Amino acid sequence: MTEDFGRDVGAAERMVREWQERASEKAERFGRMQAEIEDISVTESSSDGAVRVTLGSDGILRDLSLSDHAANRPMSKLAAEIMRAVRSAQSRIPELMRQAAADTVGTEDPAVQHVLSRARESFPEPPESEESDEPRTSGAGVREMNLGPDDDDEAASAPEGSARSWQRPEESDDDDFEGRSFLR
Q1: The domain containing residue 13 runs over which residues?
Q2: 0.70 cut: is pTM over it?
């Protein structure tokens, strides 16, 4: 009877040791996945190269480059180009995250599926593809946009109160901060 007990204890110790090894291996793979996801960087440019944005895996703008000829366009058009590039870059992040997960821990793990699902929910779909502003890829996976003259017509015809026609309200003196930051 004591021999059976000894074998059972030995088997239990082996089982715990194997479980610990698997947990350590899984934690190491998840650590690699996290590092790969944190290293994701997406760059998008406008078709003429006037606008270039770079975003991190969190979708936050890391770099914005405007060429000299970007200054020659109306600010509303430039803002629209920047936002299209940002949305286009953000829309690529979930797939890059999926690739990082597939290369490290696989995509079948429920935790990975949850992370990827949240990424798909958090980031926008690619910008609408219309002939005048369809993003295209040219070399090295950089997506570009081609903006046509129709963009100015859209801004001019935007209904009053829409995001395109919004203007900053005139400053009022009712904030009680006497022109200073409330953080001081």
Answers
A1: 9-39
A2: no
